[in-house]
Amino acid sequence: MFFSTFEKQLDAKRRLGVPMEFRAALSGMFDGVFCFPSIEFDCIEGGGKALFDRYQAVIDELPFGDPLRSDLEFSIHGGLARMAFDDAGRITLPAALCDQFGLTDWVVIVGLGERFQIWSREAFQARRSAAREGAREGLAALRAAQRARKLGQAE
């Protein structure tokens, strides 16, 4: 599982030091990460083989030729980069992914349980604000619905 948020600097060769906690979560048959353009946001999404397998299972549920299947295959398979760690625990991000999301110097790596995302600092700040507001509003709505159900059961 990937937890927490880290700011890291890309070097001139686009190498990124992956947090030790993330590397430990990825240990297994393939010592590295799968990264591709996020479907949800303008950032890189990454994780281990289990994450890739989960996306593949979603794709496999759709019939061949289905437009959604084609879009997912294009986005995930077509944008996928499989990266191994070097001796210093770094990965080298592909230039195309860095260019696509404006990753030039400092980036933010956000752990999201079974996956993580790599953001530019500026995009991360905006997303963090939106996520906090969405979580605040969503939790208030959830609690209100729970209270309404509880009151309905008490009658």
Q: What topology does this entry show?
A:
Layout: E1 5-9, E2 15-17, H1 20-26, E3 32-37, E4 44-47, H2 49-61, H3 67-77, E5 81-84, E6 90-92, H4 95-101, E7 106-111, E8 116-120, H5 121-154
Antiparallel strand pairs: 1-7, 2-6, 3-4, 3-5, 4-8, 7-8
Q: What is this structure, in a nutshell?
A:
By secondary structure, this protein is α+β, with helices and mostly antiparallel strands. The protein contains five helices and eight strands; from the N terminus they run E-E-H-E-E-H-H-E-E-H-E-E-H. It is globular.
What does this structure look like?
Helix content is 46%, strand content 23%. The mean pLDDT is 92. The protein has one domain (5-121): Transcriptional regulator MraZ domain (Chemotaxis protein chec), CATH 3.40.1550.20. A hairpin with a 4-residue loop joins strand 7 (106-111) and strand 8. With 155 residues, the chain is an alpha+beta fold. The strands form 2 sheets. Strands 1-7-8-4-3-5 form a 6-stranded antiparallel sheet. Strands 2-6 form a two-stranded antiparallel sheet. 21% of the residues are buried. The chain is built from 5 helices and 8 strands. The protein is globular, with a radius of gyration of 18 Å.
Give the overall average pLDDT. Answer: 92
Q: Write down the CATH topology.
A: Chemotaxis protein chec
Distance between the termini: 43 Å
Number of strands: 8
What structural category arises from helix and sheet content? alpha+beta
Instruction: Give start-end ranges of low-pLDDT stretches.
Output: none
> CATH H level: which superfamily?
Transcriptional regulator MraZ domain
CATH 2nd-level architecture:
3-Layer(aba) Sandwich
Bin the helical content: 40-55%
The geometry reads as globular
Tally of individual helices: 5
- What kind of sheet is the major sheet? 6 strands, antiparallel
Strand content: 15-25%
* Domain module tally: 1
